[in-house]
Amino acid sequence: MLEDLKQKVYDANMMLVKHNLVIFTWGNVSGKSDDGKYIAIKPSGVDYYKLRAEDIVILDTNGNIVEGNLNPSSDTPTHIELYKAFPSIKGVCHTHSNYATSFAQAGKAIEAFGTTHADYFYGDIPCTRTLTEEETISDYEKNTGKVIVETFNDIDYEQIPGVLVKQHGVFSWGNSPYKSVYNAVVMEELAKMNYQTLMLNDLNNLPQYTLDKHYLRKHGKNAYYGQKVSI
Ligand SMILES: [Zn+2]
């Protein structure tokens, strides 16, 4: 079932390898079916070079296996919390990509320093709080999702489609599995640029009017970037 979704989720997982965001078995991508009833996700602990589209596991929205012989990613409960809280998303991606994870380990947001950032993220990319001991000992992956959702209480998840989980790594999302990985690739590049900027000068906050100009020309009802027709 859902062979098309499995293929999309497989392709998105392989995109992580192509863009050097993962090594070994690290990272995972999932996708939600168009009817919202199912989630397809990478199996747990399977090397990317061995992964096949038919290995992608199909779950219901509570995480029960509907189809597949392999166990789903151990991060599945985090993905499920994000799908529950962020209704418009159709893809979730998790990586420990180098620069972005360095910011997560330092507990620092990726601040909006330049227009490259403003083209994709309408403000700083936040870092969550540390999980408590209790939250870590039991239901760790589910609590990771809850802490992300808590971080977005006052932030629009469509305008900031990614987060740093403190001392851990990156979660990103989008309206497809592909878009969730796309946003993870952008986050890694922004983190790299931020790191380099901070090495040179730490007083580089982008004026609000530049953030507005760059984000709003690509997103929302008054966007004018790109083509009106598909080419
Ligand atoms: Zn992780």
Task: Looking at this protein, list some descriptive labels.
231 residues; alpha+beta; L-fuculose-1-phosphate Aldolase; 7-stranded antiparallel beta sheet; globular; binds zinc ion
- Work out the number of β strands: 7
Query: Mean pLDDT, rounded to whole units?
Result: 94
- The N- to C-terminal Cα distance equals 32 Å
In what order do the strands lie side by side in the largest sheet? 4-3-2-1-5-7-6
What is Rg? 17 Å
CATH superfamily (homologous) name: Class II aldolase/adducin N-terminal domain
Topology-level CATH name = L-fuculose-1-phosphate Aldolase
Largest sheet: 7 strands, antiparallel
Beta-strand residue fraction: 5-15%
Count the domains. 1
CATH architecture: 3-Layer(aba) Sandwich
Q: Which ligands are bound?
A: zinc ion
The ordered string of helix (H) and strand (E) elements is HEEEEHEHHHHEEHH
Low-pLDDT ranges? none
Morphology = globular
Q: What percent of the residues sit in helical stretches (DSSP H or I)?
A: 25-40%
CATH class: Alpha Beta
Describe the structure.
It is a single chain. The chain is of the alpha+beta class and 231 residues long. It has a single domain (3-216), classed as L-fuculose-1-phosphate Aldolase. Helix content is 39%, strand content 13%. It has helices spanning 3-18, 76-85, 98-106, 115-118, 133-137, 140-151, 177-200, 208-216; strands at residues 28-32, 38-41, 57-60, 65-67, 91-95, 162-165, 169-174. The protein has a seven-stranded antiparallel β-sheet with strand order 4-3-2-1-5-7-6, sandwiched between helices. Helix 1 (3-18) packs parallel to helix 7 (177-200), helix 2 (76-85) runs parallel beside helix 6 and helix 3 (98-106) packs across helix 7. It is globular, with a radius of gyration of 17 Å. The mean pLDDT is 94. Bound molecules: zinc ion. Zinc ion is lined by residues 94, 96, 168-169. Residues 94, 96, 168-169 line the site of zinc ion.
